[in-house]
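Researcher: Quick test of sequence recovery. Tokens follow.
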């Protein structure tokens, strides 16, 4: 087994400090040994993978490296009593794909406390159609509901609507009976978002700075992947007592605002982290996606790709031009 070779998408830093990628053969004994060796059947693409693959040292310190913060596959070897060969499992987040070789390789070796058993009634491919983006959308929806959001609260705004987190947040909210407004920069994708069942606004409406500390109340709640001026404007527009789940920074990690939305309207700013949350929390979200949160039209939101297509799709993601989710099949 230790001699077995496999394919991996490998990113390297060259002498000019640029980053190159190639699909190479690796040996299983080149992986850092850990508790569970997993044969990866599917991975998926997330914004963080695009950062890692482009040499962002805030995500990945050392190269050569195999990105891929998501993986779903079958246990091959286990030193943990919690898993045995043949178990179907999901791994997302923690250090996978950051400084631990990730799901863009056909094998991963990870600590057992990163591993979630695949729930019954959820397929390996389906789990990666959701991936970290789905987990993040699910955590956001759960936190909003826990903070009191109901379909009667009013329209829920979702930013970065055509992105991975965005489309899954829209699909889940609609399934749960919420009315959703999708904010997008892609005019060409308005029919796609409308067909899902969302109303659509141009993201420019949210990105222009306003000198006012509060704006007209519009949204019962929001899921924001954009940050920056967009998040500031959203907080100024949330209805009394409403909440915003902040999970991304594609525009900017910085926000500059007054405390007035919080102290005059009781608005809640909820932080979402899908990476370091306890395994039990991840497991409970995966279980929900296999049951009452099962998304029926998932296939419409996903494009399946092979390793040979990774570089092009990661560039699209980095440029904010991708639509929906990309699931990476290791067999195609
Ligand atoms: N907190 C967590 O645990 C967690 C987990 C997953 C992801 N994230 C973060 O969430 C964000 C989205 O991730 P993702 O995987 O969904 O990425 P993605 O698939 O690339 O989607 C991002 C979307 O944001 C919009 N966008 C891009 N650039 C923008 C800009 N300058 N201003 C406003 N909107 C812009 C685009 O949608 P439109 O064209 O439709 O506007 C784009 O498709 C990232 O910042 C990522 O790091 C956080």
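Model:
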């Amino acid at each position: 087994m230790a001699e077995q070779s496999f394919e991996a998408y490998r990113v390297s830093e060259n002498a000019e400090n640029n980053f190159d990628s190639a699909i190479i053969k690796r040996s299983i004994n080149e992986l850092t040994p850990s508790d569970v060796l997993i044969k990866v059947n599917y991975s998926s693409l997330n914004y963080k993978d695009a950062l890692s693959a482009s040499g962002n040292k805030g995500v990945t310190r050392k190269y050569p490296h195999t990105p891929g913060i998501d993986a779903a596959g079958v246990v091959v070897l286990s030193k943990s009593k919690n898993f045995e060969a043949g178990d179907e499992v999901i791994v997302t987040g923690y250090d996978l794909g950051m400084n631990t070789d990730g799901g863009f390789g056909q094998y991963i070796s990870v600590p057992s406390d990163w591993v979630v058993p695949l729930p019954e009634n959820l397929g390996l491919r389906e789990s990666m159609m959701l991936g970290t983006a789905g987990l993040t959308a699910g955590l956001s929806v759960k936190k909003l509901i826990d903070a009191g959001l109901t379909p009667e609260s009013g329209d829920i705004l979702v930013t970065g609507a055509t992105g991975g987190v965005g489309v899954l947040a829209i699909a889940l909210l609609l399934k749960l009976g919420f009315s959703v407004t999708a904010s997008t920069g892609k005019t060409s994708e308005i029919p796609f978002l409308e067909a899902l069942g969302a109303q659509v606004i141009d993201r420019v409406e949210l990105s222009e700075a306003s000198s006012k500390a509060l704006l007209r109340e519009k949204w019962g709640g929001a899921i924001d992947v954009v940050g920056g001026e967009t998040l500031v404007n959203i907080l100024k527009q949330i209805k009394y007592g409403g909440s915003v789940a902040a999970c991304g920074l594609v525009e900017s990690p910085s926000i500059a605002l007054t405390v007035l939305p919080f102290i005059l309207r009781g608005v809640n700013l909820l932080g979402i982290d899908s990476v370091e949350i306890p395994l039990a929390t991840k497991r409970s979200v995966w279980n929900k996606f296999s049951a009452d949160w099962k998304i029926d039209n998932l296939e419409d939101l996903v494009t399946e790709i092979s390793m040979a297509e990774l570089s092009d799709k990661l560039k699209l993601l980095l440029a904010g031009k991708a639509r929906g989710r990309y699931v990476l099949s290791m067999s195609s």
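The mean pLDDT is 96.
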